[in-house]
Amino acid sequence: MDAATLAAVGTIVVGLAAATAAWIGQRSSARATHQGVVLTGYGGLVDQLQEERDRLQAKLTAAYADLAGERADKAALQAQITALQAEIAARDRRIAELGGPTL
Asked: Which residues contact 9 (CB under 8 A, 6 or more apart)?
């Protein structure tokens, strides 16, 4: 073999080695990029879930506050009903004392 043939064969071998190294490097880079995308996607999903959990927690807190307000209103109305019933009973007793008709 002459020098030109050896140089050509050497160039081909070096080219193939460089192409193989580039291909392997590209696969590693693609795998790392894919893993980065997966981790970034997972982190984004976790963030979205945490935000939704916070919104639902705020809604639940508001619902509990509304329920507590309604219970307080109900208790106030019940106290008013009890007071009115006591007032009716006192008037009925007063009517009976005065000799009026009793129910």
From this structure: 1
CB distance 52 to 60 below 8 Å: no
**How many angstroms separate the CA atoms of 26 and 7, rounded?**
28
User: Is 96 within 8 Å of 102 (Cβ atoms)?
Assistant: yes
Residue pair 27/35 in contact by the 8 Å Cβ criterion:
no
- How high is the mean pLDDT in each 10-residue block of the chain (103 residues)? 73 78 66 58 83 94 94 94 96 90 70
